[in-house]
Amino acid sequence: MHPRRQTCPLCKLVYATSDPTKKFCSDLCRTTYFNAHRATTRRTAPKVKKTETVNCLQCGDVFSRSHANTLYCSQKCSRDAHRRKRAEWYQNVGYALYSGVAIHRNCKECGTHFKISKVNKLYCSEICRFEADRKRREDYNVQPR
User: Fold this and answer.
1) Which pTM value belongs to this model?
2) Which of 48, 84, 87 lies closest to 66 in space, CA to CA?
3) Mean per-residue pLDDT over the chain, rounded
């Protein structure tokens, strides 16, 4: 590429460059310019967080959140909710699994009613699991491993 003449926006010096993205004659001019205009650049401009008022899912108190995934007003409420959910799970599923009581579920692929041995088991057999995985790959155009 042929060198072209360009004027430095800071010191107004005319210089030759073959780089089309170069705007300043030197690193000193570039850093001086950006340090002087730092407040107007996108990276350092003050960010304004949007907040919304919602109710805590554990205690019901009203609080302001700046992230959509904040569900609880404090870490204490978050811990209490987690403990409550874990206790509910243990009463409904965990106790039955650990005590030997049979829990049944319907297969997500074929609909067959089957006894589960693990909490996260969704399919009655390996065949149904492979078939569901094949359909998922077709839907999302994913190549097999």
Assistant:
1) 0.40
2) 48
3) 84
